[in-house]
């Protein structure tokens, strides 16, 4: 409404609207805000170091929204040994999984496929090559080789907390975990795999200094 | 995500500001109701499931009843 129309209705001329007086009390409509959906956000919080030994303040976070508008937040933490842990919450409880375990569980990708996927031909970046090598080497201790083995391992560990039907085998439980709680906005495991490794450009923020 | 994490650590990119509207969205009432309804329905279904499970264990459930 124009100022003249507002005044004609006994409102202030500069009135924005949006607040109300109910029984003499001022009431304000205020929206709740959430992190933007399906967008990777780089964070640095000193409190992340309290999560355990070798955790650093650096992490990237994404709030994934399922088609029914419910959401899961996945946080990828950087560790001092160069590897990364993926954190998610389920029934108000938080869990972390080494990222390599998830990459392998999603597609059963070979080490070479993972290396190439993360490097994206940027072989001169020795910082990156070192980290990826560490990531691949540190994974050897699990002795899990195929995607199905990884899913069964995850299913075995998460069977009790997820509360799935008893007649499901470990592989089913693992598959459900990856589908519903890891990057829940993407349906296809192959696409999730790609999303974990890199982000569609432009992901770079130019440093302010 | 991994590339961005490593870029962040090596100072190739800087931290995003979670307080900026660029990185925020509004929680719509419908989504909120949906979340609550989904949670309640899940609870109710789980109760039914555990009820049936205890009935079966006690031998009170008869799946072969022709009714």
SSE diagram, text form:
The complex is a heterodimer of chains A (209) and B (67).
Chain A: H1 3-8, E1 19-22, E2 25-28, E3 33-35, E4 41-44, E5 55-65, E6 71-79, E7 84-90, E8 93-98, H2 99-107, H3 111-119, H4 126-138, H5 147-162, H6 170-181, H7 189-197
Antiparallel strand pairs in A: 1-2, 4-5, 5-6, 6-7, 7-8
Helix pairs in contact in A: 2-5, 2-7, 3-4, 5-6
Chain B: H1 2-9, E1 24-26, H2 29-58
Question: What features would you describe in this structure?
Answer:
The complex is a heterodimer of chains A (209) and B (67). Chain A has helices spanning 3-8, 99-107, 111-119, 126-138, 147-162, 170-181, 189-197; strands at 19-22, 25-28, 33-35, 41-44, 55-65, 71-79, 84-90, 93-98. Chain A is an alpha+beta fold. Chain A folds into 2 domains: 1-30, no CATH class; 41-197, Dna-directed Rna Polymerase Ii 140kd Polypeptide, Chain: B, domain 3, CATH 3.90.1110. In chain A, the strands form 2 sheets. A 5-stranded antiparallel beta sheet of chain A has the order 4-5-6-7-8. By secondary structure, chain B is mainly α. Chain B has helices at residues 2-9, 29-58, and one strand spanning 24-26. Chain B is elongated and about 70 Å long. The relative contact order of chain B is 0.06.
Please name the defining characteristics of this protein.
heterodimer, A: 209 residues, alpha+beta, Dna-directed Rna Polymerase Ii 140kd Polypeptide, Chain: B, domain 3, two-stranded antiparallel sheet, 8 strands, 35% helix, elongated, B: 67 residues, mainly alpha, 2 helices
